[in-house]
Design goal:
The complex is a heterodimer of chains A (261) and B (285). Chain A is α/β, with parallel strands linked by helices and 261 residues long. In chain A, 38% of the residues lie in helices and 23% in strands. With 285 residues, chain B is an all-alpha fold. The chains are: A alpha/beta (261), B mainly alpha (285). At the A-B interface, strand 6 and helix 2 of A face helix 7 and helix 8 of B.
Chain lengths: 261, 285
């Protein structure tokens, strides 16, 4: 279970990116996080990942307050071409983090090939990342995260720079990962449709400073399907609601508070 | 390269064409060189100056001096073994020490903004000193001979390696370091799998500079008293005996050596960086 408690972060220049964020995510849940630009999505994610030490508040993972980077966490970044190492083969990219898991070389290789197979890249192991298409490179990033067997997977706008068809394929891959269980997933996205399609929950952040504006439960039947799920009245209703919230979220917390009274 | 049945060009003819193109390219590259040598030959024969022997005489002197030895020693003569090898040995030793120290220090400087801020003016100052002017200092500090020679080469060639490595280590993208952080890579793994590979193109650029500098320095340090062998020693020795063909063949030998060593390093660089090409293909150049 992931608990985010009173998380506030102010950068050195005095800019407060997120303020008093509280969020609890149950094991195995996939939570989509959407919001307008400047709502502190990446700050929130970097705090959870331990890349930034928050000014206030804390992250509690499975009952233990996190200090630094938790050891059962993996991240899939948007910029796959910079996150994968171009001088390592695809298989070595996936296997490298497993050194910290105390696995032997043979075990690391085997785990890497298994993960690559699960994302449909069984034959690409000996290639270099730059020999693959963007979608395939992002699959490699996902395979690297899966091989690491984290209990918490963070995805930072993972499909933002991919074309529509590839994006749909990878959304379905993400759903498959969720379906396999054992992993809590936080997916930050710009795409409102995507947030509803893959999420068990959609958390809408408001801007200036970033705060939780709404937390919606997505109650769509499983398995989800790119065509039929998106036709459902419930999907259409949720998408519209999230859309309205994101649009309105541009106003500041103070304005929202004034409007509410 | 076409191997389809419909192709009109058979593989053998294709190979022939490639060979012809290769030879043509070779001719283009070496033609000015050959013309220059020819002109030099004619001019020196016409002038008959004892100070300027014709190239043909230099070549035969070179052959006699260095390459008329037994086949088991790759035709190297005793003179070559006694002078060429010590010089190359000193160069290799100095380069190896400078590379290890320069890359290690460069990594630290490149990753630590504070260390860079403190040490950069000092480094730029040291680098700006023309290396040969420091040789007298090293003569005082070290024993004459190999120790002094190696020390002065190291002190000259370490700067391009160090500063280039620091530059390369700084060029690691923040996202690559974030990735290392998230997957909790150990410091050793970060250096081995991220810092060194991404700094490698810059490191090679530094090594190439260091290589040509080291050839200059090894010869210069051998021109000084206290030297008993080496290419530079042979040069001054020939000069003092007014042995012009030997002097010229030493000069030619140095040119050949410089060219050959640089070509060798380039080949190593291509091999190492070949698999290293980033997605934008910048590594091609």
């Amino acid at each position: 279970m992931l608990e985010i408690q009173n998380l506030t972060h102010t950068y050195a220049d005095g800019h407060t990116a997120i303020k008093d964020i509280n969020l609890t995510v149950q094991d195995g849940q996939l939570v989509s996080i959407v919001g307008p630009s400047g709502c502190g999505k990446s700050t929130l994610l970097r705090c959870i990942a331990g890349l930034i030490r928050p000014a206030e508040g804390r992250i509690v993972l499975d009952g233990t307050p996190a200090d630094g980077v938790p050891d059962n966490l993996a991240v899939v970044f948007q910029d796959y071409s910079r996150s994968l190492f171009p001088w390592l083969t695809v298989r070595d990219n996936v296997a490298l983090p497993l050194k910290q898991r105390g696995m032997s070389k043979a075990q690391r290789r085997e785990a890497a090939m298994e993960a690559l197979e699960s994302v449909g890249l069984a034959d690409a192991g000996s290639k270099y990342p730059w020999q693959l298409s963007g979608g395939m490179q992002q699959r490699v990033s996902i395979a690297r995260a899966l091989a690491y067997r984290p209990s918490l997977l963070l995805m930072d706008e993972p499909f933002g720079s991919l074309d529509a068809q590839t994006r749909e394929d990878l959304e379905d891959l993400t759903l498959k990962v969720r379906g396999d269980g054992g992993m809590t997933i936080l997916l930050v996205t710009h795409d409102i449709d995507e947030s509803v399609y893959v999420g068990d929950r959609v958390v809408v952040l408001g801007a200036s400073p970033g705060h939780v504006r709404a937390d919606l439960t997505v109650d769509l039947p499983e398995p989800r399907d790119q065509i039929s799920t998106r036709e459902l009245p419930e999907f259409v209703r949720l998408r519209a609601e999230v859309g309205r919230l994101v649009r309105g979220a541009g106003e500041t917390a103070e304005q929202a508070a004034t409007a509410a009274t | 390269m076409s191997t389809t049945a419909s192709s009109a060009v058979s593989p053998a003819v294709g190979r022939g064409r490639r060979a012809a193109r290769f030879l043509g390219g070779l001719a283009h590259r070496w033609l000015p060189f050959a013309l220059l040598i020819g002109a030099w030959e004619l001019a020196t024969r016409a002038a008959e100056s004892p100070f300027f022997p014709p190239p043909s005489q230099i070549v035969s002197a070179t052959h006699e001096l260095w390459l008329s030895g037994p086949a088991t020693r790759l035709f190297l003569t005793d003179l070559a073994m006694d002078n060429l090898l010590p010089s190359l040995g000193r160069m290799a030793l100095a380069l190896a020490i400078a590379a290890v120290a320069g890359i290690a220090l460069g990594m630290v400087l490149g990753r630590s903004e504070r260390a860079m801020a403190y040490l950069n003016p000092l480094l730029q100052f040291c680098r700006a000193i023309p290396p040969p002017t420091l040789v007298p200092v090293f003569i005082v500090l070290f024993d004459l001979g190999t120790q002094m020679q190696v020390a002065s080469i190291i002190f000259s060639v370490i700067w391009p390696i160090l500063l280039n490595t620091a530059d390369g280590a700084r060029s690691v993208t923040p996202l690559q370091m974030d990735t290392a952080e998230v997957f909790r890579l150990s410091t050793v793994d970060r250096i081995r799998y991220i810092l060194i590979p991404s700094a490698l193109p810059k490191i090679f650029a530094g090594l190439r500079l260091a290589l040509s500098l080291s050839l200059i320095l090894v010869v210069f340090s051998e021109l000084l008293p206290g030297t008993v062998n080496g290419i530079g020693f042979q040069l001054t020795d020939a000069q003092s005996r007014s042995d012009m063909p030997t002097m010229w063949s030493v000069i030619v030998l140095l040119g050949v050596l410089g060219y050959a060593l640089n070509t060798l390093l380039l080949a190593v660089e291509r091999r190492t960086l070949g698999r290293h090409r980033p997605a934008d293909g910048k590594g091609d150049t």
